[in-house]
Write a structure and sequence with these properties.
single chain; alpha+beta; Phosphorylase Kinase, domain 1; Aminoglycoside 3'-phosphotransferase, Chain: A, domain 2; two-stranded antiparallel sheet; 9 strands; 42% helix; 13% strand; globular
């Protein structure tokens, strides 16, 4: 798709498919995501358009499952109110949601705020308890989130080789071996799939207000939702998150695998040219954090 996803496109799509919202002001939400582009429509709505065909499967999945999950969770999640159809103007389905107030938490709040960590842990535990009947198992729709991290072993090993002695190869290899030597033995459970600062909203007091961007959600192993506790939280906040998630040591080992896989491929620039140098530096810090967490757990 060559056409830019911008305000003019959204205005035309809304006017064509949702004429009752024609004339509402439209502004792009920044910073923008990679999987989708988000625009505010008036005061009460948002429009989300997948940035490429790779993310199209997420649209109908969110439209169907988010209303069902919302009834079972203690925190707000996106509420779909309309689905746009593919046309010559824009070749993919797209979504309209209720606007959720709040802002992304700061890195410092995520790292150190014990109450925030506990609340997030409780919210993810509630998601794990939600009825999984008929839910989507790991697959192309969520890039295998909820599976074992071993599905990305070839990428992880290629990144380790590319980074060479610029990383602690022995330590990273130990993390990877520990992550891929266990499996989730329970029934599939719900997970978000991408719990990160950019997919959380807090209110003015720093309280968790919403979980957003459920494109990688599914049912399977919830270990991928522990990554934020490994890669972003510190000290008492990390311990509070662990306590409120109440998953075993093997799950945390797999979480370190998910975290280090992503950090390795970003640091090694295997994710494509869109990863800026700042992201590569952040990825290297994440590698160090995962190694430190692994040693603490040993």
């Amino acid at each position: 798709m060559n056409r830019a996803i911008d305000v003019d496109l959204v205005r035309a799509l809304v006017a064509e498919q949702f004429p009752h919202w024609r004339g509402l002001p439209i502004t792009q939400v920044l910073p923008g995501g990679w999987d989708n582009r988000t625009f505010r429509l008036g005061n009460e709505l948002t429009v989300r358009l997948p940035s490429s065909e790779a993310y199209v499967l997420q649209v109908k999945k969110e439209q169907y499952w988010l209303p069902l999950l919302a009834r079972q969770l203690p925190v707000a999640i996106p509420e779909p109110v309309g689905i746009g159809r593919a046309t010559e103007r824009f070749p993919y389905p797209w979504s309209v949601y209720r606007w959720l107030p709040g802002r992304a938490p700061s890195a410092d709040l995520v790292a150190h705020d014990v109450r925030f960590a506990a609340t997030l842990g409780d919210a993810l535990a509630a998601l794990q308890r939600a009825d999984p009947s008929g839910g989507p198992l790991p697959g192309p729709h969520n890039f295998r989130r909820g599976d074992s991290p071993v599905v990305y072993e070839a990428e992880a090993l290629r990144a380790i080789d590319a980074l060479g002695d610029t990383i602690d190869v022995v330590g990273v290899s130990e993390v990877w071996e520990a992550a891929t030597s266990t499996r989730w033995r329970g029934e599939p459970v719900w997970f978000h799939g991408d719990v990160s600062e950019g997919n959380l909203l807090v209110d003015d007091g720093g309280e968790l207000a919403a979980l957003i961007d459920f494109g990688t959600m599914g049912i399977g192993d919830p270990a991928c939702d522990l990554v934020i506790g490994v890669a972003a939280m510190r000290g008492d906040a990390r311990e509070a998150f662990r306590e409120h998630r109440a998953l075993d040591a093997d799950a945390w080992a797999r979480a370190r695998g998910w975290a280090i896989w992503k950090a390795l491929i970003v640091a090694a620039r295997l994710t494509g040219s869109h990863a800026p140098e700042s992201e590569a530096r952040k990825a290297r810090r994440t590698i160090d954090m995962v190694l430190e967490d692994h040693r603490r757990a040993a």
